[in-house]
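In this section we walk through a basic example: taking a raw amino acid sequence and producing a predicted 3D structure, encoded as discrete structure tokens. The instruction is simple. Fold the sequence below.
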Amino acid sequence: MPTEQRLENVKPELAVTRPSPPAPRPSPPAPRPPTPPAPWSAAWLAPWLLLGTCMVLVPCVLRQQGRAWWCACGRPALWEGSVWSSHCSQHFLDPYSFSHLLHGVMFFLAFAWVAPRLPLIGRFALAVCLESGWEVLENTRFIIERYREGTMALGYEGDSILNSLGDIGCCALGFLVAGRLGTRWSLLLILGVELAMLLWIRDNLTLNVIMLICPNDAIRQWQMVH
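The resulting token sequence is shown next.
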């Protein structure tokens, strides 16, 4: 048999036995967002019932604690800009409302990390519930005295009920804002608000926590300059 003919007979056999390249591995599926609960289901109703319960219970508990509905001046206002005025924490909003806005931003980030599968409305309801609990705790005699002894709030006598509701509303707004901004811009918002409040009123959420837990005389003296 001629050499060319033998090579032609061998080549097809070699082509058949040549191993094929391995198939590419499929990429893992992207995580799916939590499915919102069906309207009027138990999972849909529970967060709304929790929100409604908070909005009813908080004013009742604060009133039971002796808190006034609004400022003793008898003229409730939307905004009080001075932290040194006796009207601070007595009207609907004041400079510390921005700290409560940050509460909501931080709640959003925390729940997105620890409970990513929980529907958004459920996380929102938990944030409002936690903020409501803090408003009740903040207006107990123990915390009021702690503020008076350890922070710049020397004449603090507790929040009015109107102001507490404003604080809860600011927390809810902060949660919704963080949901629109995402993690990176939410962190920048926290930093920006903290710096702005430090320059504006020499107080912010960070200093408030520090002075409440571990008062520092040097910080307090610096804050008293106005």
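Looking at the output, two observations stand out. Residues 2 and 127 are 87 Å apart (CA to CA). Residues 87-226 form one domain. In the next section we compare this with other chains.
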